[in-house]
Amino acid sequence: MIISPRARALAAAAAASALLLTACGGSDAEETPAPSPTVEASETVAPTEEMTTEEATPEESPIAEESAAPKASTTREPVTTGPLEGEELNAAGVAWFGAFCTGVAKATSFAGPDTTGMAIGEVTDTVVTTYQSIGGSFTETGQALAALDTAMNFENADAFAASSTSAVDEVGAVYTQGSETVAAGTYATEAELLKVVNATEASVVSAGGGDFGLSNLDDTVLASVGAQVPACAEL
To answer: Which residues, in sequence order, are bridge partners of residue 84?
Structure first.
């Protein structure tokens, strides 16, 4: 089966849920390049290795330990699924992936707020509000997924759904905690704020926010999701 461009885009779109907040891109943050503050959510990229190593180390941050974002503690084994059993994804699969993609799209829509011309205090408030919105959105999505039937017609569907739902829940918790961490800090420059933002984003990736396990879906499943689930085709 040939995998459709929409199906391939699904995995890429989920990877964008590791939402590097673009609020911190001013001259004070030149040591850690960030995307333009006006970039739209669909253009938001995951943090690069350079953006989440030394710059995100709490001990080196001038903002003290209490402002360091929490590290994700959950370690998940990747769940690899088997091929689709039949020609199409069943009703349970369409419903589950529909809820997943709708939730990812909602969370992604909050990313990349325009902070052009804002003072550092306003940027900080924007980061807090954005992280609260993203965290709340992922938490709501996790709750919705947990209530759905996971009897999808491919091997290891139950394990995949459980792992992905757990990752969604933890990413929501990381962003919510990140909002509290940012709110508790005092930042003289955007460079200082960016250290905490990068630490939060690194924790998101560790929590499973890179792709929520979609890269482990069998190609036949991924193709059907892209073709059958309208919410996933829109991502």
So the answer is: 154
Hey, which residues does 154 pair with through a beta bridge?
Answer: 84
Per 3-state DSSP, the chain is made up of helix, strand and coil in percentages (nearest 5) of 60, 0, 40
The model carries a pTM of 0.75
Distance between CA atoms of residues 62 and 138, nearest Å: 30
Comparing C-alpha atoms, which of 216, 205, 206 is closest to residue 161?
Answer: 216
Helix (H/G/I), strand (E/B), else coil: 17 = coil
203 residue type, one letter: S
What was the pLDDT predicted at 34?
36
CB contact set of 205 (below 8 Å; sequence gap of 6+): 18, 46, 47, 52
* 47-75 exposure pattern, b = at least 16 Cβ within 10 A, e = fewer: beeebbeebbebeebebeeebbbeebeee
Alpha-carbon span 11 to 218, nearest angstrom = 12
For 32-47, write each residue's pLDDT tens digit: 333 333 223 333 333 3
What is the gyration radius of the CA atoms in the chain, in angstroms? 18
Residue 41 one-letter amino acid = A
| Cα-Cα-Cα-Cα dihedral sign, residues 71, 72, 73, 77 | negative
At 184, which helix (H) or strand (E)?
helix 157-184
Name the one residue in this structure whose structure tokens are 């993609």: 101
List, for residues 159-203, the tens digit of each pLDDT value: 999 999 999 999 999 999 999 999 999 999 989 999 999 999 888
Are 98 and 231 within 8 A, CB to CB? yes
